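not sure who needs this but someone in the group chat was asking about ECF RNA polymerase sigma factor SigH from Stieleria bergensis so here u go. i didnt clean anything up, its just raw.
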Amino acid sequence: MTTEENSADPIDCSDPAIVAKYESYLRMLAQTQMRRKLQAKYGASDIVQQTMLQAVQALDGFRGENEAQFRKWLRQILSHHLCHLDRDMHRDKRDVRREQSMEDKLAKSSMRLEGLLQGDVARPSQNVMQGEAVLALCQAIDRLPNEQAEAVRMHYLDEMKVSEVAEAMDKTTAAVAGLLHRGVKTLRRMVEN
């Protein structure tokens, strides 16, 4: 079991409404991991809704004990949905390695997300935020202006260089640096309140 899984608060899964608390978290992860072609065809919100529906239906099957294990379980469901959509789009034969890779990517994105506000994006596992703080951060990113949110996701969660973000967004590096500066400053203010 990872440090993250051992360090979280216990979770009560007796109420299926618990899954709704994680909508922003799942959407953030879906947005960072969906391929551009997949994003053009499916919205992250649609995939998150499918993930949440499956989670509610399978809630009795959750065998974890705490909030971090619950997030991991939700990431696995999301990973399976993303892989199935990707496979359907490419009509390739099922590749279990690709599904495992997606789970790893989602876990890494989650760790980077958890480390974002600690100011230590390079080593987030040392500054893991717990439960409600992760959800609050996802909700705060959702409330950022679209360009700031996109820049923050690309740079911090997708680990793109500022120059790569600038190219993807068709902006100058200075403009992207400004978006990142304002975005992170706003996020810190929103999460601290």
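also The radius of gyration is 17 Å. if thats useful
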